[in-house]
Amino acid sequence: MPRIVSLISSATEIIHALGETSNQVGRSHECDFPLEAAALPVCTKPTIDIHADSREIDRAVKDRVRNALSVYEVFDEVLERLQPTHIVTQTQCEVCAVSLRDVERSVALRLASRPKIISLTPNSLAHVWDDIRRVAGALEIAEHGEVVVAQLQARMCAISEKARAAFERPRVACIEWQEPLMSAGNWMPELVEMAGGVNLLGEPGKHSGYLQWAELVTADPDVIVIAPCGFDLARTAQQMYWLTEHPEWHRLRAVQNSRVYVADGNQYFNRPGPRLVETLQILSEILHPETFALAFEGTRWQKL
Q1: Which domains does the chain have, with CATH numbers?
Q2: Taking CA atoms, which of 32, 67, 152, 209 is between 20 and 30 Å from 142?
Q3: Cβ pair 239, 265 in contact under 8 A
Q4: 176: buried, middle or exposed (CB in 10 Å: 19+, 13-18, 0-12)?
C-alpha cells in the first residue's frame, strides 16, 4: 500500500477525492481538509509570520525570495520517520506551498523508501484536472482519476449552464491580495466567465499580478470579490481597511452600488483542487443571487 505525504493543501484534497485518505501518512501545516487530515503528522512550517497583516506578509515574502530563501521549512526528521512512498508538492507558486526545491533540499531523495515525488503545476483549470490525473497515475489508479475528473467537470458544467442563463453579465474584479493590491489570475478568470461574469483583471493561466489603484478605478467593476490567498472569511474581512480607507475606494461603482463581497480565499478561491467546484458555486451565488440559492452565504462569502 502507498504511504503518501502531501506538502500542499490542494493535494490533500485531491488525495481525498481519489479515495486515498487512508493511505496518507503526513501533511503540510496548511492541510485542513478533510477534517481527518488534521490528525496526521505535520511535515512543514512557515518561516515567516503568517499572522502579520497583508503589507508585512508581502514584505517578508519578498525579502525571503530576494535572498533565495524558502518561505517554508520541511521537517526532515518527520519524513525519515514516516518513510513515504509518494511525496506530493508543487511548482506553481513557491509562496503558496512547499515547492519541489524545498523537497529536494530535504532528505526525501535519501530516504530508504525512495519516494516518488509528484510535482503539481496548477496554472489553469485544465492543469488542475491534469494534476488530479497525475496523482491518480502515480498511485496506479489512473482510471479512477478519470472518473473523478469527469464528475467534477460535470458538476461545474451544471452550475455554469445555470449561471450563464441569467440575464445579467456583471463586470467583475477579483482581488487576491489587499496590500499591495493583486488581481486574481490562474484559474480565477476562467471561473468568473463560467459563473456568467465578465472578468476585468488578471489573465487566465498566468500568475496573479500586482495591481495599481488607477487600474482598478479605470476598470470600475460592477462587482468586486476579495479573496486573499491564505485568508479565511473572518481574516479577509478584518483586513479590509487596506481598501476601505483608500481615498479612491468610494469612487468605485461596485462600492456605490453595494456589490462588494469578501470570500474565503484560503479553502476555495486560491486552492487548486476539487473544491474549485464550490468556488464556482460561490461566485455564481454572488453574481446571480436571484438565480441561485445562497447556500454558502455567511460561511464562505458575505457582502461587505
Answers
A1: 4-121 (3.40.50), 166-303 (3.40.50.1980)
A2: 32
A3: no
A4: buried
Q: Are 148 and 129 in contact (CB under 8 A)?
A: no
Catalogue the E-assigned strands of 123-259: 171-177, 182-183, 198-199, 209-210, 223-226
Digitized pLDDT (tens) for each residue of the chain, 304 residues in all: 999 999 999 999 999 999 999 999 999 999 999 999 999 999 998 877 788 888 988 788 777 667 555 777 888 899 999 999 999 988 756 555 566 666 666 666 677 778 988 989 899 999 999 999 999 999 999 999 999 999 999 999 999 999 999 989 999 999 999 999 999 999 999 999 999 999 999 888 888 889 999 999 999 999 999 999 999 999 999 999 999 999 999 999 999 999 999 999 999 999 999 999 999 999 999 999 999 999 999 999 999 9
The pTM of the full predicted model, rounded to 2 decimals, is 0.92
CB distance 12 to 37 below 8 Å: yes
User: In a 3-state reduction of DSSP, which class is residue 123?
Assistant: coil
3-state secondary structure of 276: helix
**Residue type at 167 in one-letter notation:** F
